[in-house]
Amino acid sequence: MSDEMDEIINDFLIETTELVDDLNQKFVELESDRDNQDLVNSIFRSVHTIKGASGFLGFNQMVDVTHITESVLKKIKDGDLILEPGIMDVILESIDMVKVLLDHIKQKDGAEEDITGLVGRLKAINDGTAAGSHEPPQMMAQPASNEQDIDMTAVLDTDLLAELEAEQAASSGVKQVGEILIESGLISEDDVDEALKIQELIKESVDVGEIPRVGEILTVTEKASKDDVKKALNKQAPPSTPAEKSDKPQQVEQTIRVDVERLDNVLNLVGELVLARNRLVKIATTLEIKYQDSEDLAPLTELTSFINLITTDLQIAVMKTRMQPIKKVFNRFPRMVRDLARQLNKEVELRLFGEDTELDKSIIEEIGDPLVHLIRNSVDHGIEMPQERQSIGKPTLGTVTLSAYQEGNNIVLAIEDDGKGIDHEMLREKIVEKGLSTFDELDKLSIKEILDFILLPGFSTAKVVSDVSGRGVGMDVVKTNIDKLNGVITIDTEKGKGSKFIIRLPLTLAIIQALMVGVNKEVFAIPLASVVETVRLVDKDIKTIRGQETVILRNEVVPVHRLADKFFIERSSDINGKMYLVVILIGEKKYGLMVDKLFGQEEVVIKSIEGFSGSADGVAGATITGDGKVVLILDPSVMFSGVKHG
Amino acid sequence: MPYDKHMKILVVDDFSTMRRIIKNILKQLGYEKIEEAEDGEQAFTKLKNGDFDFLITDWNMPNVTGLELLKRVRADAKLKAIPVLLVTAEAEKEQVIEAVKAGVNNYVIKPFTADVLKDKLDKIFERLKK
């Protein structure tokens, strides 16, 4: 029983969290689209739902907060209260409180929040005593008060039913069948009266639900033909309920909630399958070469390629089950931008594009924080104050655009603002001032490379450090987080026009394409996403500049790092002066990784190594190759993070 | 209309937690055959395709509301006799009147206990016997 209760509470937490996330977005939408009745209804319904379930589960504080919020929303819904920013702030505060309370429920800490202040403010708004709340004067009287006093036990009374029926006939916009038939001249008013009387009688004698309709009575008493009634009913149709209009083909959404753990388990198993498939393919290939002439091998080859195909499909299918729309992350931003803009006295509009773009769950979970920071940055440092914007001929309303789209095997997220952009000169000065580089060195770098300094630890260009963003921490954290996801961030900016931050992320984290390389007798896997090219070198191509081995590739100086040295492996002596350079791109910067052999491309499943993966050693994890070897997967971004520019 | 623990009940609510709660209460009362639908549209399809003996529906749902579902059920030759219990909140009292007009058999106010629900079910079947 208590297990069942736990499950229900768990369900409640998940569902309510979803509702609250949606609510934040809807409220911000509502602020700019106040007449959107559908939106108001849906907000009202969400709060109402939370209240209802909380009541059952005994979450009293939750009921208190949602109850009064619901009342305020009802007034807004009914047009008795105008939604002003001040009122909106309090409502949003109550939504935040719901979140806090949800957290308590989740933590099972039994802690209570002090909600008296909030509830008091909501009550004041609801009672119309709050400063700044304007109720339309004609609505001062409580419209629903007498109805609330009705003794509900009496409602089921048939007398009351009849009364209500008559009332409805008089007031409703929908024309009664009788009326239509009279208008068409088919029957007289007396006929209808008679039919209504019959209906009354029947009502009194039989149970609810069995009452014949006026049309039916008219047909039975032969006052009107079935066809005429049908025609009249058809005429009645237009002003009817939307439900009847939406009589489209039944689309029943069939979804089930599955514990993420189970999905992870399936993904793990598929990972194992991919590894086994890789081995199978390798063995089959070896056998094919060895027994070329044997006909017995044909079925094996065929089956192998079939299993190969199915495994790939299965892998994609399983990955899809873990995909979630980025909407989940985007939802919280409109609210955040709104609050931020109000706090900074700026006018900012957030535009969202591609919210349905899907990403792996694990990436969705990790991408939120970097995006929060980038958007905060755009609003805080990018968008100018309204007066300033006006003085330079920009609209006072600044725009921050957040978009997501798929590009090949990557998902691209772009945060763009039409603010002041980044001043290159000021940036250069700042870099030197911070001691991160010298003007001489900066002269050698491209603009893109200079912009990358922003992503270094301890860098902040904002003159006034606000409490919103720009504490000197952040951008480097953004970069670290994105690196962790095997993603890449680039910056594009134009002074006076705005800045654009572009994040490229892989579709999934668990299975990647890797370049297999060899050093001496060791094999390593390098994620293909970061590999730009591979080049064959001979000893004399390598020039040592200021103690750093480098190579010039198409007029570009690329530093050379020997993989052997990185892992303290003895350099191979027997390579006839031939070696390979794997050119790796991290951010905008290229690094060369020297290896002895290139084995080719392989699909690898990342297995994390407990207490080792993600460490400073530059190892992302391990995998098992086609020939059954355990191989380390390199993490170039970590590997080269300690390497200074130039 | 069979009023026993074997009657097949459809619980309609757009909030899955709510459906589970109601289901849980029904189970406490000894009912076994309970199915769920998440909105009026889905509920109507299920009702049409399955021989349900009882319908418990929330009022405030997106798209096809509880009231619209009720109206559709009452207008359907096959389903019109099925007893309907409406789940509502206190603030929606005035809506109950509308529901009664549309032929609801009874209503229950959230939150309710197993005893309250049992009482409502008893009342409905008592009235139906008359």
Quick recap of the structure?
With 646 residues, chain A is α+β, with helices and mostly antiparallel strands. Chain A is 48% helix and 19% strand. In chain A, helix 1 packs antiparallel against helix 4 and helix 4 runs antiparallel to helix 5.
Write the layout of secondary structure elements.
The complex is a heterodimer of chains A (646) and B (130).
Chain A: H1 2-32, H2 37-57, H3 60-77, H4 85-107, H5 116-127, H6 145-148, H7 158-171, H8 177-183, H9 189-205, H10 214-220, H11 226-236, H12 242-245, H13 260-290, H14 297-321, E1 323-325, H15 327-330, H16 332-344, E2 348-353, E3 358-360, H17 361-382, H18 386-391, E4 398-407, E5 410-417, H19 424-433, H20 439-443, H21 447-451, H22 475-484, E6 488-494, E7 498-506, E8 511-519, E9 522-527, E10 531-538, E11 543-545, E12 548-553, E13 556-562, H23 563-566, E14 578-586, E15 589-595, E16 597-605, E17 619-624, E18 630-634, H24 636-639
Parallel strand pairs in A: 2-4, 9-18, 13-15
Antiparallel strand pairs in A: 1-3, 4-5, 5-7, 6-7, 8-9, 8-16, 10-14, 11-12, 12-13, 14-15, 17-18
Chain B: E1 9-12, H1 16-28, E2 34-37, H2 40-49, E3 54-58, H3 66-75, E4 84-88, H4 93-101, E5 106-109, H5 114-129
Parallel strand pairs in B: 1-2, 1-3, 3-4, 4-5
Helix pairs in contact in B: 2-3
What does it look like?
The complex is a heterodimer of chains A (646) and B (130). Chain A is of the alpha+beta class. Chain A folds into five domains: 3-152, Up-down Bundle (Four Helix Bundle (Hemerythrin (Met), subunit A)), CATH 1.20.120.160; 158-237, no CATH class; 264-324; 326-506, Heat Shock Protein 90; 511-639, CheA-289, Domain 4 (OB fold (Dihydrolipoamide Acetyltransferase, E2P)). In chain A, strand 4 and strand 5 form a beta hairpin. In chain A, helix 3 runs parallel beside helix 5 (116-127), helix 10 (214-220) runs antiparallel to helix 11 and helix 16 (332-344) packs parallel to helix 17. The two termini of chain A are 66 Å apart. Residues 131-157, 166-174, 201-210, 238-251 and 462-473 of chain A have low confidence and may be disordered. With 130 residues, chain B is of the alpha/beta class. In chain B, 45% of the residues lie in helices and 17% in strands. Chain B has a five-stranded parallel sheet with strand order 2-1-3-4-5, sandwiched between helices. In chain B, strand 3, helix 3 (66-75) and strand 4 form a beta-alpha-beta unit. Chain B is globular.
